[in-house]
Structures are given as C-alpha cells and as structure tokens.
Amino acid sequence: MKTLLLLFGIFFLSVLLGSAEGKMVAFVNFVVRHSFVTQSNGITDMTVAAAFKPHEISETISGTNLWRLGFFGARNMEGTGPRANEIHQLLSPAQRSQTAFPGQNLTFDASSRVNLNNIGPDQSFPFYCVEFAKNPLADPDFTFQVANDEVPAILCQNSQSLPRSAPEQETRPSALFTSLTARFQITKSPDDTIPSRATITVTLEPHPRTDVITGTNLWQLGFFGSRNSDGSGERKNESPQLLLPVQASQPLHPNEPFVLSVERLINMAGIAGTDESFSYLCVEFGKQPTASPEFLFLGSDEDQTIVLCEKARDTEQVPDAFPVDTIRPQILECPDIDAPSVIAIVELGITSAIVPFNEPTATDASNSITVDSSCNSGDRYPVGTTTCTFTFTDSSGNRDQCVFTITVLTEDTTPPEVFQCPDEVTAIVELGITSIVMLYDEPFATDNSNATNLLQNQTCQPGGSYPVGETSCLYLFVDPDGNKNSCIFLIKVTTSDQTRPTISNCPTAGPSTIVELGLLYGVVLWTEPTATDLAGATLLPRTGRPGDSFPLGNTPIVYVFTDPSGNEATCTFIVTVTTEDTTPPMIVNCPSLIERQVELGVPGLIITWTEPSATDISGTAMLVNRTHAPNDFFPVGITQVIYNFTDSSQNEAVCSFMISITTDPILIEFTTNDLKVQEDIDDVTINLNLNQTIERTLQLVLGFEKQTQHLQHQGKIFERKPCLPPCLSVLKLHR
C-alpha cells in the first residue's frame, strides 16, 4: 500500500466582475491537495483537501446543495475533451451546503474511492483533474464566476506521480451506505383482490469510502408485510424485486445520493387490515445474486440486506376507488438533448463507429409499456451527430418521449509507427580500448496524418564515438496532434581480451648440461620465462623446472601462460643432457715404494715388480708411457718410476713410485767428548768433529752434497745440516 501527497499549488485567477441578477460569487484563487492510498486493481482511496477563496466583493452565499467538487481523468492539462472514471460529486451533503463568505477561504475535506484504471502516463488519460463548480441543485440559485465566465474551475495534474497499484490479489469493490430512508404512498384498492397502487421511494446515503459500483443487475428492492418493526418473522405478500432493469443497474458513486423510486401494483390483502396482524410495511434493499461484476455489499461476502419498516397507519393511504390511468410513463435516464448525450470517439480516418449506450427506459403503474425507438445500442453511427427518439406508451395510451443525440467524433490518438528500432546495438573492442565509432541503421517513423519530419529529438547518431559500457539512446517521434512514440535502445560496447600474453626470456637455445659418463640423469638450470598481459597472466603447470633432473638426451619443456579470457601463449624449448668422460682411468697395483739395500761399494741393482694396470668407465684404458720397466737396472739412490695411462677421452692417470737402493748403515763410533750438544725445544743438535777418514767415508756412503744426510748411531738417526766451511759437521738427533 502506498500513500502519495501532491500539492497543486496556488492557482491565481483573474476575475472581472460584471452585473448579474441575484447573488454572485467569484473566486480569485484556490489550493487543492491530494492524498492517495493504493488498494488494488486501480482502485485507490483518495482524500482531497481544497480551499477556495471568494473575491472580497463577492456576496455571501448560503443555502443547500450549493457546491460540487468532482474528479476525472483527462487527455490534456486543461481538462477539456473526453473524461475518464469521472466522479461527479465528492462532497457530503453538509459540505455541499457550506456558506461562502467574501474574502474567506471555503474549505473542503472529501474522501472517496477512485478508479485510476486508464489514468496514467502510459494510458489514454495522462492527467487527473479536480473540478469545482456550482451544484445544479443549488438552492437558492446564484451566479458562479471564474475569470468572468460561469464555468467550473478545473485544475489538472500530470499523472506521472500517481501511485500505481501493484499486481496484488484481486479485491472486489464494496458498496457501503451510512443511512436508508423509505417513503410509502399507497392508493389502496377498495377490494383486496385488486392490487393497490404504491409509490415507494428509497433514499440511501453512500459512505465516503464506498467504491464506485457500476454494472448490470446490481440492486434488488423488495416489499413485504411484517408483524414486527424490524421485518423479522413471517413475511406477507412478498415482492422480492420492484426495480426495473435500468433501476437495478443504477451506478453508485461516493457522496452522491442514491435514490430509487418505483410505482407498482402491490397486493395489500391482509396487510394493515382490521386485525393488524401484519401492520408493518417493509422494504428490503440488497445486492442481486446475479450482479455483474461481482462486488461486496456492506463490505461482506455474506448475503446481507438492509430492511426498513413503517407502521401501516403512518403511510399515506387514499381509500378512493382505483382511478383510471392518466399518468404518462416515467422515463428513466434520458440524456440531455441540449448536450452531446452519447459521445464516441474514433480514430482519424474512420467514418463510423459502433456505439453502445444505456437505452432509456420507463416505468409505469400498469407495468405494460411499449417502446418505439429510432436508435439501438450497439448500432453503427456515422461521424457527426445523430438524433435518437425513444417513445414509451403504456397500456392506457399515455406516452412520453426521450430525445437525445449520438455524436461520433474523430480524433488522432494513434502515435507514429516506429520502424527499424533495434533492441540494442553492440560492439566488441579489445581490452584496453576505451571507445569506438558506431554505425547503425537509424529508426524512422510514419504517421496516419502523412506528416513528415516526425523526429523531434534524438540522443544518439550513427558515426558517433561511444565509450565502453552502455549508452541509452532515445529517438522521439511526435505527430502534429502531439501523439508521441519513441525508440529507446542501448548501445553496448564491451571489451574482449583476444590478445595472448607476451612472453619474455623464452630460451632460444635450449638449456643443456653435461654429466659424467655413466650417469643417467643431469640437473639443468635456466632462467624461467615470464609473461605479461593487460588482464594478468597465469602460468599453468609446466613440464619441467630449473633444478629438475632430466634423463640423457632431449626433453621438451613447455611453459603455457593464460589470461582470464583463456588466451594462451606458449614457450617451448629443449633441455639437453649429454655425457662427457672426465674421469681418468683407475690404476690398479701401483707400488708405493720399493726399497733395496746393497753392500757398500755396489753401484746398483736390477729391480722387478708387478706392473700396474688401469681400467676406465669407457671400457678403454691404455698405457701410453712408462719411465722404467721391471728388470731394469737402478743405481744406488732413489729413482722415480712413472706409468702414464690414458682413455679414449684422453683423460690421464699416473702411477708414480720410488725405488730406493741404499747401502748398509755405517756405524760411527765416537765418544761424548767428540760431541758438542746444543739442545732446543724440538731436538738436540750434535756438532761432531769428524776426522778426515770418517768424513770421506760419509761422503762416499751418503754424499755430503745433499742437503739432508742421515747417520745411524746406537739406533738413533742423525740428520746432518750442512754449513759453509770451515765448520764442524752438524748432526741433528731427532727425539
């Protein structure tokens, strides 16, 4: 449920006052405020607060039924032309009779349910209006002026701000009443076997919140005699329906008196008799079971009625003889001949229209009426004015006529027809581009008026530059009668990433490594490639990483980079693992030292040994050189023997060992007197004065020309340190 307040503002009217007979009131301004509370199906509770200010030179206007405040939908801001869902009177009886004083606001606060169907910005009636005027039933009569004209004051508002009812569950309208009065006039027949003539008038006051009820077979008005004042108990001579079809279909409007008057022949036998057993005359008012459309009576879905009874002696009864019928039939709802009574509007170019209307009906006490008409509801009528006559004649020859006109008007209400209006115009640009020039086929329009240049406004055009995103475009077409149509569409520019990521550092020559012959795997290192992309690049699982072990041979490595749009870029290269023989041959049986002794004076000795050999992982190890061979002669002293081996990769291995041939040790006898001992931390140095014989013998055996000589004395080794002569020989005793 939604409430909306609208303030029309102050509408100033210029008033030119002239002379007029009787009293006169002229209004200089008025303010109208609306409040709407949406119900459902277009039915809305409306409250109108209005203030009307008479001119200071106006006269005081007092009486009954002075004012009328109405509501309707209109096609234009002026409120002229056809009206939709009109409520003729919003004011209650008390408000209609308010006194107007010069210069003082005349205020009203009226409530009613209104039908907003067909009233709205997209409907046939885009404006809603309030009309303030003199009530035709004003008593006494007076002159009502607005801007020097005796016309109603009309204020209209664009319905853009009207509440729209939500698609709620359907709610049936309700007929609500605040009071009911009945008046009985009975011309009693002198003989109970002859029906009596009765005129029964029922007046109901609609509740301000009642819905507008229109349709067919709406109401039921019955008559019966009763023993009780509330109509309870047994009913006498009941007539369940006194209304004619046209009366049973009388519309109900808020704040407008609802009056039903019938003349019927009723059976009064046993009613208001001498025994007074059925002394009450009763009417029962309610909804017909066959009402169309369906509505709620008194706001309830149950079968309810309003019963009102009067004591028979309180009614007007005429005990005369049953008179001769001289009364003409009473015509109901005859349109005013002085105004276009029935109006139909057809589209420009159409020459006629089928016009349905409520045909006039009549009532008569005889209940026997013949009708002669020149028009029929639902017939086709030409553009222009057609005069219709309905003649009603009762069984006694009494007749009356209803004459009215049917007017068929033409109006151009058809908006231009738009062609080539796209739902949307789309383009895709590469990610990073911000706009694009768009070309499209422009919409155009034609109109039944054959007018050209219908395009009044456009917000887009082909060849324009449109940014990434959505741009709303409007083409507005208007014909000479103001009918509008538009083409609204979107220009959608979206980005699409169709560019692959850009790879950097993709190896052009594949990384490689060399491993020792005999290994099956090798670790390969490289700088990993990277990728950039406008949307960001992601590396998918790769087939190898730096530092991984790879088998001998070629292994393909694939780096795949992808962006959020699925574009892929690939870096592919080969990782190569090769072998190289860098291991020298392995020597077997390489001697460490061969020592031999010979007698003093023997120059040397033939030495033999098991020759070393070599193996290699390549399977080939060759002896390429040796300095000596077994059974060679070696002189006294130390000789180095070298074996050189090589494999197919020219890796070399050397076996080197020493052959030492020495003479037996010389025992030197000397006393401590011959020694000069000098001690330090690590050893003892002995200075020995050797005679020439011993010196020569030492030279012969050991050779003093070498820097280090050894002597053995009493199991101890002496080391000779040479010095420049003349000096004593120095022997160093190792501890």
Question: What would you say this structure looks like, in words?
Answer:
Strand 54 and strand 55 form a beta hairpin. This protein has 3 helices and 56 strands. Mean pLDDT is 80; it is low at 1-21, 165-170, 316-323, 667-686 and 688-735. It starts with a strand and ends with a strand. Strands 1, 2, 3, 6 and 8 form a 5-stranded mixed β-sheet that branches. It folds into 7 domains: 3-161, Immunoglobulins (Immunoglobulin-like, Sandwich); 174-317, Immunoglobulin-like; 330-411, Immunoglobulins (Immunoglobulin-like); 417-496, Immunoglobulins (Immunoglobulin-like, Sandwich); 502-580, Sandwich (Immunoglobulin-like); 586-663, Immunoglobulin-like, CATH 2.60.40; 672-734, no CATH class. The chain has 735 residues and is mainly beta.
What's this, in brief?
With 735 residues, the protein is mainly β. It folds into seven domains: 3-161, Immunoglobulin-like, CATH 2.60.40.10; 174-317, Immunoglobulin-like, CATH 2.60.40; 330-411, Immunoglobulin-like, CATH 2.60.40.10; 417-496, Immunoglobulins (Immunoglobulin-like), CATH 2.60.40.10; 502-580, Immunoglobulin-like (Sandwich); 586-663, Immunoglobulin-like; 672-734, no CATH class. Strands 1, 2, 3, 6 and 8 form a five-stranded mixed β-sheet that branches. Strands 52-53-56-55-54 form a five-stranded antiparallel β-sheet, with no helix packed on it.
